[in-house]
């Protein structure tokens, strides 16, 4: 409602001319950073870091069978699919530049069967994608700022489905935390529902990109923030049955509006971290990025007993810091452990300090840290214990241990002792993720694999070995960005022997754009989607 009322402010807030949606598509292409579509339309993207080099838009929708295994062997009994998603803008941005987080969700499926791998890649058909394709150019503006949109799309769902993809209850969910799930066909990658609402049961406006599947029950646990509208403190926690029905919801308010990007589950609790990546309508009206880092605010941890109600939530506090992704959480009685890559300061240069302090790369270095709170104690303290020396992000586990005490954690590591031999090799946080890391939480030992001076890694995912039950018995799948040659490879590692290097190296026929998250779905999960 508010967005609609404020639309008249666009020209005043943003000094640039509001081009008609079609003007971009017709602009002559004179430089290298262009993309041609059948039909002769050529797009011109900005010559900025978000749109050039390895970050050049891809726009490739393709099906390719029988990929070439150039080294090693794909285990013949591996049967299932690895899904992952990347922001990949369909059109040049309305404002002349954009952040990577705002691109249209391009979903990739790597299907493994009988030692063969095939790939399929398709954009999610979000409402945004469809409207812009019809118009032939961008209609939606800045990241999570509807005030920057073309008036013709006022009030439309702005989701890009660009952050995570996973299969549950036969549905392939493509997720962006500002909007409802997009449901796709896991086999064809066709978009089935651009704003899925669980048969009317989901009344939240948003759904997290980081739902968890409880391995003990098969339930999907999820939440939405800004659930009653942009920048509101309203949260909802959903329990979704193994067959995909919402069976419970808990509504509550968080201490202050912030990016609630991820959360943790344990056997007995659900854990929400409030970190000071804050936003407000005032920022949007001023044309600032949706979020900024406010180091004046403390961190809070909300702990909700499983099956509890809003009044059962207990809040804990700690001095300001940065944490976004959650490796895992577990509880030992009333002791709740929550493991996160944690940095002293802001990790997102594109969401700048709210007081105007310059970005400090050394304060953006994240180290895996255990946050522990005691539900039986009177204290609201959070105890913080470092778990490993790695600097990095994108933590993963053997998801059969989600919410349980896990022994192994994998992550991307920035090894600054290693040479880097390329211009502009960056990852999500502007860092060069050149190494895979494995932490053994039982022994404290670590293992790593450096990808070389001209490549970087995307986030890995764990694949259970078919028939196995032991934690870590399986593979790690990861896309290698071949930055020097603007290409990509798909690597498989023995998950507990990453230091030995890949057991299979698969050539990919085109560059796969830098992505966010992905997940494995085994053959049984795919059959359920038949
Ligand atoms: C993240 C990514 C997003 C987003 C919010 O921390 C947070 C990652 C790709 O989009 O909208
Ligand atoms: Fe994420």
Describe the structure.
The chain is mainly β. Helix content is 6%, strand content 35%. The strands form nine sheets. Strands 4, 31, 32, 33, 34 and 35 form a six-stranded antiparallel sheet that branches. It is globular and about 60 Å long. It starts with a helix and ends with a helix. Fe (iii) ion (FE) binds at residues 163, 209-210, 261-262, 325, 516-517.
What key phrases describe this protein's structure?
disordered N terminus, single chain, 530 residues, dioxygenase, EC 1.13.11.-, binds 4-hydroxy-3-methoxybenzaldehyde, mainly beta, oxidoreductase, binds fe (iii) ion
Short description, anyone?
The chain has 530 residues and is mostly beta strands. It has six helices and 36 strands. Belongs to the carotenoid oxygenase family.
Summed over residues and divided by their number, the pLDDT gives a mean of: 92
Instruction: Quote the distance from N terminus to C terminus.
Output: 40 Å
Number of helices: 6
Q: Name the bound molecules.
A: 4-hydroxy-3-methoxybenzaldehyde, fe (iii) ion
What about the largest sheet? 6 strands, antiparallel
Q: Bin the helical content.
A: under 10%
Low-pLDDT parts are 1-32
User: Approximately how much beta-strand content do the residues carry?
Assistant: 35-45%
Radius of gyration: 22 Å
Instruction: Assign an overall shape.
Output: globular
List the helices and strands and how they pair.
Blueprint lengths: L1 H5 L3 H4 L9 H4 L7 E3 L5 E3 L17 E3 L4 E4 L7 E8 L17 E9 L2 E8 L3 H9 L28 E5 L2 E5 L6 E3 L6 E3 L18 E2 L6 E6 L8 E7 L5 E8 L10 E2 L3 E6 L2 E3 L1 H5 L5 E3 L5 E7 L8 E5 L3 E2 L4 E5 L2 E9 L23 E8 L8 E4 L5 E5 L11 E6 L21 E6 L5 E5 L4 E3 L3 E4 L9 E9 L4 E8 L9 E4 L10 E5 H5 L3
Antiparallel strand pairs: 1-2, 3-7, 4-35, 5-6, 5-36, 6-7, 8-9, 9-10, 10-11, 12-13, 13-14, 14-15, 16-17, 17-20, 18-19, 20-21, 22-24, 23-24, 24-25, 25-26, 27-28, 28-29, 29-30, 31-33, 32-33, 33-34, 34-35
Bound molecules: 4-hydroxy-3-methoxybenzaldehyde and fe (iii) ion.
């Amino acid at each position: 409602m508010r967005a609609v009322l404020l639309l008249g402010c666009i020209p005043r807030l943003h000094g640039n001319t509001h081009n008609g949606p079609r003007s971009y598509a017709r602009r002559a292409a004179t430089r290298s950073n262009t993309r041609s579509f059948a039909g002769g339309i050529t797009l011109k993207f900005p010559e900025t870091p978000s749109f050039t080099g390895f970050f050049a838009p891809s726009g490739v929708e393709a099906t390719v069978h029988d990929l070439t295994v150039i080294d090693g062997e794909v285990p013949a009994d591996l049967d299932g699919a690895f899904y992952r998603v990347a922001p990949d803008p369909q059109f040049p941005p309305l404002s002349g530049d954009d952040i990577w987080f705002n691109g249209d969700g391009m979903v990739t499926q790597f299907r493994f069967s009988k030692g063969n791998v095939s790939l399929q890649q398709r954009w999610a058909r979000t409402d945004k994608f469809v409207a812009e394709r019809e118009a032939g150019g961008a209609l939606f503006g800045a990241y999570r700022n509807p005030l920057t949109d073309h008036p013709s799309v006022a009030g439309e769902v702005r989701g890009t489905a660009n952050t995570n993809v996973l299969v549950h209850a036969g549905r392939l969910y493509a997720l962006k935390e500002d909007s409802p799930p997009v449901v796709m066909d896991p086999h064809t990658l066709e978009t089935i529902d651009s704003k899925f609402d669980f048969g009317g049961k989901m009344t939240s406006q948003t759904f997290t990109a980081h739902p968890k599947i409880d391995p003990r029950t098969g339930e999907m646990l999820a939440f939405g923030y800004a659930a009653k509208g942009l920048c509101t403190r309203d949260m909802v926690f959903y329990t979704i049955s193994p067959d995909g029905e919402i069976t419970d919801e808990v509504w509550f308010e968080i201490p202050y509006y912030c990016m609630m990007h991820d959360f943790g589950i344990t056997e007995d609790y659900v854990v929400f971290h409030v970190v000071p990546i804050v936003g407000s309508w005032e920022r949007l009206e001023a044309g600032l990025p949706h979020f900024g880092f406010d180091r004046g605010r403390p961190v809070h941890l909300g702990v909700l007993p499983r099956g509890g109600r809003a009044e059962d939530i207990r809040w804990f506090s700690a001095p300001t810091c940065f944490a976004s992704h959650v490796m895992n959480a577990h509880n030992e009685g009333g002791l709740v452990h929550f493991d996160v890559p944690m940095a002293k300061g802001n990790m997102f240069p594109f969401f700048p300090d709210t007081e105007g302090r310059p970005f400090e790369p050394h304060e953006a270095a994240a180290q895996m840290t255990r946050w522990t709170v005691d539900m039986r104690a009177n204290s609201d303290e959070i105890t913080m214990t470092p778990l490993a020396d790695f600097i990095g992000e994108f933590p993963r586990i053997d998801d059969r241990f989600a919410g349980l005490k896990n022994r192994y954690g994998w992550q991307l590591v920035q090894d600054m002792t290693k040479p880097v031999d390329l211009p502009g090799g960056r990852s999500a946080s502007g860092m060069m993720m050149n190494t895979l890391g494995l932490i053994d939480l039982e022994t404290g030992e670590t293992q790593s694999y450096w990808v070389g001076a001209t490549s970087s890694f995307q986030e890995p995912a764990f694949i259970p070995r078919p028939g196995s039950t032991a934690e870590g018995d399986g593979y790690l799948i990861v896309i290698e960005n071949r930055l020097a040659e603007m290409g990509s490879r798909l690597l498989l590692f023995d998950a507990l022997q990453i230091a030995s290097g890949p057991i299979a190296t698969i050539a990919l026929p085109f560059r796969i754009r830098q992505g966010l998250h992905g997940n494995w779905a085994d053959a049984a999960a795919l059959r359920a989607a038949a």
